Amino acid sequence: MPNLKPVTYLLILLLFVQYACSDSTIEKQKISEDILINQIGYPTAAQKLALLRIDADDFAIKNSEQETVFTGKTGAWKYWKLSGDSVRVADFSEFKAPGEYTICVNDSLCSYPFKIENDVYNNLADAVLKSYYYARCGVDIDSTYGGKWHWKAGHPDTHVMIHASAADNNRPEGTIISSPGGWYDAGDYGKYVVNSGISTYTLLLSCELNKKFHQTQNLNIPESGNELPDILDEALVNLKWMMTMQDPNDGGVYHKLTTKNFTGFVAPSETTEQRYVVQKSTATALDFTATMAHASRLVAKYGMDELSTEMKQGAEKAWIWALRNPDVLYKQPADVSTGAYGDRSLTDEWYWAAAELYLNDTHNRSYLDAMLDHWQEPETPTWNSVNTLGVISLLTSDECEKFPDVEAGFLAHVDQLLAKEKQAPYVVSIDKFAWGSNSDVANDGMLKLIAWQLTRDEKYVASAQNDLDYILGRNATGFSFVTGFGPKSTRNPHNRIMSSDGVDDPVPGFLAGGPNLAVLTDCNPKEVKRSPYPAASYVDVECSYSTNETAINWNAPLVFLVSGLDYFYVK
User: Which entry of 206, 221, 526, 536 is 20 to 30 Å from 150 by CA?
Assistant: First the structure.
């Protein structure tokens, strides 16, 4: 030991002890996946809840320097039969200081880090919308816009055959038509009008109801900087493709454009199989009618009068076709195995289409009569249950005061969602886990934000926040289900483009379908184990198409939810 003065020696000893204690503290604090949080973070003024699967009566919020800045008590244990486990709530809503934090319990177990700040969802909002740029069909995805995710175009769809199921005297089997553009629907390379309808409508709705947010949003897509908001530019990519799917001879609309069978996990530019348009159906005609009628009103507000007229006329022609063919249900041809999107009940499609046509021509009594004839109580929308979209269009229009009973029914459904959330240990409204369960959560959140816009009651915003918290990690799996967002997030989606792009990281902003028990054999059950509980039955592997596929109708309500919450808390 060198000859040091006593005071100097004492200072060195104190510093060594302080460093050793600090290092020991860091080592003792470990990430626990039993502390469930929104892995991105929380707006400053928002309700902030975490869930603990750890026996702890107290919790602490610590900053990046491991200083305790807030403490609280945990709630009572609650068991959820859908997840097979119990959780306790840690409520830190009172803590509002911006920064990066962790939640810690028992002095040693901490959550993943998360942020508290006003615009915490800004990057997320951009990414979930930009997912549609990456889903564009028939165009190069250039590195200028896509960054490290870029690829050559495939499927120009300028040489598409009429399938036998879609043939008629004007367009016999084998006739060649052109139907370029649009979005790939999901993890495959098909394009489906039924699913495009609800997806495109939801983006248009966000463009309208979250207008101030989208006016300033810049996604860095080829159209950025023009006179339109980027969300409308992107929606037009798909709307223009949908218009090519209408038969100009009779107004009917083809159900889908695909190969006969799913292609392998290869890049779009490497596929060579012939593509077809398949069968016309009543559901397709009505979904097309509703989407085009709604879009015609919106694009007219941006001075696109010619396009508006074309959309309106297309909607009316498809409606007439549906009136003449009221019960043509889609039937999958024997030689086609791609997605069916078959719908056996059309009452909801009739209502949605009639509502949108009525809003274009309120003096046409036949549209109002059709609405009354096909009324159904509002429910959370899905691709095959779309009547609530018509309800939303009515309630957010200048005609809303004429439909007080419709508003009462809508709010009653949303209030039921809040009642479910209040009883649920995981503080979320979902109580049934169907295929694409995450989209049900996102759609619930969308409805709640619309309820806030109708009532200005902020209980609906707090509940919508819970839905986003669930999607971003506060769920029974502990995953953030949005690619590229969160330290434990989906990395291996069932998506052919991401599988073949040569980049290890998934394209950010895609919502995985989420947990369910619909199909337990999409992966080899001997190699991939799934939970027997529906809320926990999720695996982040490519083969699990039932839990890990992406789809345009799953991202669309997430666009609305994230954009709406960002706008609410930043405005």
Answer: 206
Of 103, 105, 124, residue with least CA distance to 114? 103
Bridge-based pairing of strands 276-280 and 160-162 is parallel
Contact 90, 11 (CB under 8 A): no
How far apart CA 516 and CA 564 sit, in angstroms, is 27
Q: Could you read off the pLDDT of 282-297 as tens digits, one per residue?
A: 999 999 999 999 999 9
Instruction: Give mean pLDDT, residues 508-523.
Output: 97
Question: Which residues lie closer than 8 Å to 359 by C-beta, 6 or more apart?
Answer: 293, 294, 297, 393, 394, 397, 399
Ranges of H-type helices in 102-192: 122-134, 143-146
For 191-245, the pLDDT digits (tens) are 999 999 999 999 999 999 999 999 999 999 999 999 999 999 999 999 999 999 9
Please say if the pLDDT value at position 543 is more than 50: yes
Distance between alpha carbon 319 and the CA centroid of its chain, in Å?
Answer: 28
Q: 122, 42 in Cβ contact below 8 A?
A: no
Residues in the chain: 571
DSSP 7-44: HHHHHHHHHHHHHHHHHHHHHH-EE-TTEE--SSEE-T
Residues 6+ apart with CB under 8 A from 157: 137, 138, 178, 179, 180, 181, 191, 257, 275
Please choose, from the candidates 106, 111, 114, the residue with its C-alpha nearest in 3D space to the C-alpha of residue 31: 111
Please tell me the distance from the alpha carbon of residue 512 to that of residue 481, in angstroms, as a whole number.
5
pLDDT class of 28 with cuts at 50, 70, 90: low
What does the block give as tokens for 86?
Answer: 């119990």
Q: Which residues contact 235 (CB under 8 A, 6 or more apart)?
A: 200, 203, 204, 207, 295
Active site residues: 188, 494, 540, 549
* Cut 0.90: pTM above it: yes
Q: Is 334 exposed, middle or buried (0-12, 13-18, 19+ CB in 10 A)?
A: exposed
Cα distance between residue 138 and residue 183, in whole Å? 9
